[in-house]
Specification:
The protein has one domain: Neuraminidase. The protein is 6% helix and 38% strand. It contains two helices and 24 strands. It is globular.
């Protein structure tokens, strides 16, 4: 499904882009087409819940887009021969951080919500990606290969002051801030299997939340009220979305479909969860109520659409 993207890349480019996408889809790899109206099956959505960011290959290359929460007004923000994706909103909605393969490796960039004001934040020969703004807007969490394996780092939202938070010999990836900024949830293979952990914001006291032979993790999302975490897992034989308390208890399965469901993001009011799924034969973006009911499809493209985030 990524043929349209990888055909435009060198072998090196293709290998690294695929590896980053694999990490974002629980370490499993996930043509242009005319836009069709979104298929809305659930309760009506309104534009008052702010915009959604997503990445798409609909224009021949992976780029960053935004749209209304009902799938309308889809706008392209980036335009570069390298892949741009995984955009995250700043808490005040004034900037977007994203990862871009623009200078031979993945680096972090920020831009205005209309795509202007582009500025590069990281300058490292290794790959940096998956940015997540801190709740106070002063720092950005990210994953990097700069020390030989995937680890979780934090930096100033204006660039610089980069600090490593994890230090295991296995891959530590992703990361999601708790709403109060005191904790960070992340995925790790430090116990031989991909599981979910939570640590203090300074990297101390990592605690394992999941324990299953299947893979738990990928992109995580902390509920706005700070009580729950939504994540994807293969524990039932397929990538589905699950909900748990922040201490790992009260596990609830939200989706049940033969397709791959992943990349969850909460609405600002905590009532809905948006996600990516290939349940209709292609990666598209959907939204549902936080209990798994009221499913609505937001995009309908022959190309790949990946959910990035929901403006806070």
């Amino acid at each position: 499904m990524l043929s349209g993207l990888v055909a435009k890349m060198t072998e090196d480019n293709r290998h690294m882009t695929t590896r980053w996408l694999i990490l974002g889809t629980l370490l499993v790899a996930c043509g242009d087409g005319a836009t069709s109206p979104p298929v809305l099956e659930g309760p009506p959505l309104t534009g008052t819940e702010r915009r959604i960011t997503f990445s798409s290959t609909r224009d021949g290359n992976l780029e960053v887009y935004t749209m209304n929460v009902d799938g309308t007004d889809q706008v392209r923000l980036t335009s570069h021969v390298g892949a741009d994706h995984n955009a995250d909103w700043s808490p005040d909605g004034s900037r977007l951080a994203f990862m871009g393969f623009r200078d031979g490796d993945y680096e972090l960039y920020v831009m205005n919500p209309d795509g202007t004001g582009l500025r590069q934040l990281t300058f490292n020969s290794a790959h940096d990606g998956f940015p997540q703004w801190s709740p106070d807007g002063l720092e950005i969490l990210f994953t990097s290969l700069r020390d030989g394996d995937f680890e979780v780092y934090v930096m100033s939202a204006f660039g610089g002051n980069e600090r490593r938070l994890t230090a295991s010999r296995a891959d530590d990836i992703g990361g999601a801030w708790s709403p109060d900024g005191s904790k960070i949830a992340f995925s790790s293979r430090r116990d031989d299997n991909l599981e979910i952990y939570v640590m203090n914001a300074d990297g101390t006291n990592p605690v394992r939340l999941t324990n299953h032979p299947a893979q738990d993790g990928g992109k995580l999302a902390w509920s706005p009220d700070g009580t729950r975490i939504v994540f994807s897992s293969y524990r039932d034989g397929n990538s589905e979305l699950y909900l748990m308390n922040v201490d790992g208890t009260n596990l609830t399965r939200l989706t049940n479909d033969p397709g791959l469901d992943r990349f969850p993001a909460w609405s600002p009011d905590g009532q809905r969860i948006a996600f990516t799924s290939d349940r209709d034969g292609n990666d598209e973006i959907y939204v549902m109520s936080a209990d798994g009911t009221g499913l609505s499809r937001l995009t309908n493209e022959a190309a790949v659409d990946f959910l990035d985030g929901w403006r806070k």
